[in-house]
Amino acid sequence: MNQSPAQPPFDLVIGLDRSDAKADLCLIDVLSGKRRHQTIATAPEALATWIAKLCQAHPNARIALALEQPAGNLIPFFEAYSWLTLYALNPMTLKKYREAFVTSRAKDDLRDADFLADLLLRHHDKLTPWAPQDEKTRLIQQLVYQRRAVVDQRTALTNELQAILKQYFPQALDLCGEDLWRPLATTFLLKWPTLQAVRKAPAETVRRFYHALGSRSDRLIAKRLDRIAHAVALTDDDALLSSFSLRVQSLCRQLQVVTRTIATYDQRIEQAFKAHPDAVFFANLPGAGPALAPRLLVAFGSQRDRYPTRESMQRYSGIAPVTKQSGGKCHIHRRYCCPKFLRQSFHEFAGQSILHCRWAAAFYLQLREKGAKHHTAVRALAYKWQRIIWRCWQDETVYEDRIYEQALRRSKSPIISLFKRVEVGHNPAKEQPTKTS
Contact, 170 vs 228, CB < 8 A? Predict the structure, then answer.
């Protein structure tokens, strides 16, 4: 016999589906079951007016509001009202719930608002209310997220610059080094945007330029000077050279601004991380460093009850695999629906830990010799690291390699026998033959 769903601890349930210009609302009175719909603008002034009227109409009511993520502009707005219980739902949750009743997959904003309210009304006990992190954690969170966005912008500009240089000045890819966003490359191209321009410069001038920008290898400078002296221009068409030069110089100036912005982010992240009370638990992780330690802190946050078990963190972050079993068939694959930046943080940390932690290198080597590919082995290592970090985070204990290696010896772990084959600072898979699957 089916049990009826638990009575929601709310008097009013609201579903909100938004677009850029408007938000459609479905309001359900829990006691009477009556529904009504509204449409409001999403401008802050309109939202403030609506929520003031809502508070006035329901002064003592327990109100819950469900909306679909991502809603970066609405969540900070609504979380300021403590009397409002906010639920930020995964878009996939709403999609699957809608398709359970609308097999044609037709959708519109008003019906989605209705489904959001209905989902919260009927399944509130399976949903987790939105709980913002404390101010110090939110600061680091926003800094590392925005830094990643700026790094992606730098990558896009670099790729665009590289593509343009290949069209008229391919020698620049050798003369400027591998990273076109670095000061040497951008300054070089602003000074000499064409092969014709750099060939007019005296060799000693070019040599002094490289020295001033930090390239001090006489052998490398001589090689570059020889490359300039014997280079053949791809084109001498003034129309192409002048137009491409302007575009390249524009990209170089943008890259200089973006690079300075990343440096500013790094400074602010370092300051905010040092001021966080939990920083010590992540700063000492082998291989985390100034870039990954703040990202790991943000991944866990400061609310210990957010991840009551290590498995909850492993599933949410996307590191835990997904098992699909039906009858006699069982298929295991990596998790796709997860916060990608969060998963990437753990994956990158696990990869760095191989170079800084003996047991991590041995664990990675063991998997590679069993036939695992690089990223598969790194994900397995990240899975193991999450269990360790979660325990330290919950107990507020600083991780130590020595203590964990002692635990491995007590349990007679097979990776102990591989310690003599790994060396800190070296990737064991590059120095040991691996089995092929």
Answer: no
Element (H, E) at 157: helix 135-168
Place of tokens 């970090």: 389
**Is the pLDDT confidence value at 2 over 70?**
no
Look at residue 56 and tell me whether its pLDDT is greater than 50. Answer: yes
SS3 220: helix
Q: Is 282 helix (H, G, I), strand (E, B) or coil?
A: helix
**pLDDT tier at 434 (50, 70, 90 boundaries)?**
very low
Query: Cα(202)–Cα(10) distance, rounded to whole angstroms?
Result: 79
Q: Which amino acid is at 312?
A: S
Measured torsion, CA atoms of residues 28, 33, 34, 37, in degrees rounded to the nearest 10: 20
Per the CB < 8 A criterion, the answer to whether 282 and 297 are in contact is yes
CATH code where residue 204 lies: 1.10.287
Reported for 320-326, long-range contacts at CB under 8 A and 24+ positions apart, including other chains, are: 320/383
The single-letter DSSP state of residue 85 is: E
321 DSSP assignment: -
Per-residue pLDDT of 393-430, as tens digits, reads: 999 999 999 999 999 999 999 999 999 998 888 888 77
Residue 95 has pLDDT above 80, yes or no: yes
Q: What is the pLDDT of residues 178-195, one digit of tens each?
A: 899 999 999 999 999 999
**pLDDT value for 71:** 73
Residues 260 and 170 in one domain: yes
CA 212 to each of CA 184, 185, 207, 350: distance values in angstroms, whole numbers, following the listed order: 9, 13, 9, 37
User: Mind giving me the DSSP string for 137-155?
Assistant: HHHHHHHHHHHHHHHHHHH
Structural domain of 422: 281-324+337-431
Q: How many CB atoms lie within 10 A of CB 109?
A: 16
Residues 122 and 182 in one domain: no
- Structure-token pair, residue 71: 């809603």
State the CB neighbour count (10 A cutoff) for residue 229.
Answer: 9
- Report the predicted TM-score, pTM, of the whole model to 2 decimal places: 0.83
**Residue 211 token pair:** 């020295």
